[in-house]
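Q: I have 237 residues here and want to know how they pack in 3D. Can you give me a structure?
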Amino acid sequence: MAGHSAWKNIKHRKAAVDKKRGKVWSKCSRAIMVAAQKGGGDPQFNPSLRIAVDAARAANMPRDTIEKAVKKGTGEGSDERYDAVRYEGYGPGGVAMIVECLIANANKAAADIRVIFDKNGGKLGVPGSVAFGFSQRAQVIVSDGATEEKLMEHALDAGAEDIQGEDGAYQVLGAPADLIAIRSAIESAGMTVESAEVVWLPLQMVEAPSDTLAGIERLVDALEDLDDVQKVYTNLA
């Protein structure tokens, strides 16, 4: 994987998300509800819930809002239920895209996503049409207090497989099952974790023709504006 391009994309996506705080909180709530629904309401015994709650805190989501989402997920005062669904397709210029969703109505979600692909020069594919070109990885972004030597000393023993850095920040990658262990090792060593999540990383990144870049960005933005959509991944360099 091209480390520089990957890190540039991470920073770009994070900046875009920060501008949509209300949407972010809504998506965080759904992630918390689903995690609590599947594994219970105690983050200590539910790693998926811990990750979802940490993401919500990183987005400055109020504590009471987080607690309400947990209670909804465990069935206290709400019958809302969401299912995790992945859609795959291609954007302008043949850029591969994975769209991760948490949905309540499968028919509506599929229709909405298909319309967005069609209106923005993309094509929604069948399951498996794109995922073979990506790898699901644990990704931990580290900033304050981090050095490559320090990360290698602590993160590698916890299961980290790759460390890439730029401008004083680092991307640590490993197997999805090792996410919590990697994060805990890094934090225990006094380094600041900006985010920790399981992501889809492209096995090979592609350069899109310059005349398609604006169209790709419009497609990604339109998808991210949907409440059902949690994350959008591409193989764009």
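Q: Anything worth noting?
A: The chain has a mean pLDDT of 89. The longest strand covers residues 193-202.
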